[in-house]
Fold this protein.
Amino acid sequence: MKATLYIFALGLSISFFSCDQQKATKKTPIVSDTLQAGLIDKEKERLEKIKEIEEQDRIDSINLDKNLTHAIKRASHYKVLDKFKEKYVETIPESPYQIEVDISSEFYFTHGNPHLIIRRNTPGSIYIDIFSITGDQFSKVLSHKESDMTYVNDTIRDINGDGLKDFVVNWYGSSGCCLKAFSNVYLLRPDKKTFSNDFEFINPTFSPKEKIIRGVCYGHPGETEMYKYKWNGEAVDTLEYISYEKNDKGEKTGKVIVSSDESYSGNYKILKRLNDVPNEYKKIVGYEWFAGSGF
């Protein structure tokens, strides 16, 4: 009898446990379905937003292409002239925004080959396109896009000391904690018409006579490094990096380290230790930042 009661009680227990499990099982899909539906809706919103952005980018790209084509056509009206300038404003179709266009032709880089430069200032970005001119033909040889928040200026000068004038876009980073003046350099090639791909340098000081670039790396004042590069045709060779030596406690020892690369690089190798920073670095732009003076 006791065994029968025990078996009966056990059966009820199993039955109740089973019912509880079924209730729990029934509740779970309801919560899961709700969450899943919410996630699906959010994913749909995200995809729709991406589509809207992509469509707007497509439209903007088409309008920019049309705008550039129009600028080239206007430039062709001056094809009998090597030198000309024109500025105008063009309205973007179905948009309240306008594009400020500056077209000019000149012997900007050499005395024998004129170049056409088209600058377009749009809401948010600045576009610079350079064309070589042969007869009445314009051949695009350079194209650069820069945010209007970061753009500083652009210059034409011999950067690498080869006697040819190069194109340089200077800009300043819009985010980050530290010194971040950048230069994108396009080297004029020996054909005196086309340009190399761009070289980007941070906080650079160019020395064309030496064919050297010195600069300050990204980092907090007194805690970062300086670099020294050398032009090698359409390439740049790393010569050395300069940094303050620190002990195990992170304190400066008063010595200066000359290394083969930045300290966090896998190629880092100490070349020598000095008692002071070499004089060649003390006149570069940003040296005070490297030294931590006044910051």
